[in-house]
UniProtKB/TrEMBL annotation:
SMART domains: HTH_GNTR. Signal peptide: none annotated. In the C-terminal section; belongs to the class-I pyridoxal-phosphate-dependent aminotransferase family. InterPro entries: Aminotransferase_I/II_large (IPR004839), HTH_trans_reg/aminotransferase (IPR051446), PyrdxlP-dep_Trfase (IPR015424), PyrdxlP-dep_Trfase_major (IPR015421), Tscrpt_reg_HTH_GntR (IPR000524), WH-like_DNA-bd_sf (IPR036388), WH_DNA-bd_sf (IPR036390). This is PLP-dependent aminotransferase family protein. It comes from the Bacteria. Keywords: Aminotransferase, DNA-binding, Pyridoxal phosphate, Transcription, Transcription regulation, Transferase. GO terms for molecular function: DNA binding; DNA-binding transcription factor activity; pyridoxal phosphate binding; transaminase activity. Residues 12-80 form the HTH gntR-type domain. Pfam families: Aminotran_1_2, GntR. It comes from Candidatus Pseudoramibacter fermentans.
Amino acid sequence: MISYDLSKRGSKPRYLYLYTRIREDIASGRLRPDERMPSKRKFASVLGVSVNTVMAAYDLLVSEGFLYTVEKKGYFVSKLNYVVPNHDDKPITPPDASEDTQWFMDFRAAHASLKLFPTSLWAKCMREAINASDSALMTTISWKGMRALREAIAGELANYRGMTRVTPEQIVVGAGTEYLYSRLMQILGPGITVASADTGLSKFAQIAKNHGSHWRYIPIDEKNLRVDLVSQTDVDVVQLSPANLFPYGTAMPIDRRIAFFEWANAGKNRWIVEDDYDAEFCFVPAGHRSMFSEDAHDKVIYLNTFSKTMVPSLRISYMVLPPALLKRYEETVSFYSCSVSSFEQYALALFIHRGYYERHLFRLLKHYRKLRAAILDEIAHSPTLSPIAKVTDYGVGTYFLMTVRTDLSETEILKRAEAKSLRFHFFHPLHRQPPEGCVQIIINFASIDAEHVHAVFELLGSIF
């Protein structure tokens, strides 16, 4: 039987130390998938603790998906695709609602249900930030953002995206991806041409045009954006989502990644912008690492945000720049102050360093995995949707593409949807039309409450 020396727990509560050690053994493979855990009473007796201590540790592991229960049989180890994190327990040195309309279901909403957010833990971190006596929180911070947060982000990228060579100095924190993209367009200079996958109009295209740059939408194939078409044009920068091509959820295979690296390396001023939005939510066996981690010649610029994994109001995004562009940024636009409150940055650094963020992500993954399965099952068994709807879903992200056979026009569909308090986007790439007699709807399921799945899709089906 497994056992742990609780005398080594230091100041940690017994249940939390036990939870940490069991989780480490699951992640390392010492405890194998579907292996049965000791009963609560037997384990408590071996460890010399109360049954409540073991129960608290087990319940926490179940809530995060590391263990599962079988009625009348006990606790068992879950099968996970997991990278063992390197947590640092050392203390950190701090250096309006957009719309009034309430929809029964808004498939355009990209954020998780606020019921899933650990509000009390975030409030605890915010209170600590507000009450911090360090004067650094009251003064102007580095244009890159607070170092404590940049260190925390670098740790997350190393643990979960394979970006082990990223240093805090390369990371620039900003209030939203749009803000950072605007700064990026400034340092790349006017007159460049940017290409992106043709998955509909991009807000980044307007930002680029506002800075005097050109934008091209390039057709895609089953491997993502077509590199052969990029090579035939005067493109300087390509924007890619290699881990999760919206709205298909497809990952870029290694041969296409290599082809884009070869394209970038063939020109001195060619760059790849890697937008890793929503890549945290992968429900299939782990795929490729980030392109940034595979880049041998410093050609990749990495972008990501906390708005999806935390709450929409937390406008904290970040950009990782290769050395040449970091130097150019410092020389040209570092006069812009960091656009994120130092208090929010410090609170987020605490949230990450203490493991709250990681645990929150595991809860979200567990929730979304069940929710996604329930939705796909609901559509498959819906008497109205199953005969006419086909779902394109590759198991990444919190959305999928639904193709519906119908004679209704998009205008009529939207009118009917509004009458039923539903809202969604149609999928309109520039170079590809939906199959004849069909419409394509983007279903973002992040904010659907599990108890409303049947009602939501019954209502959606009634439109047709």
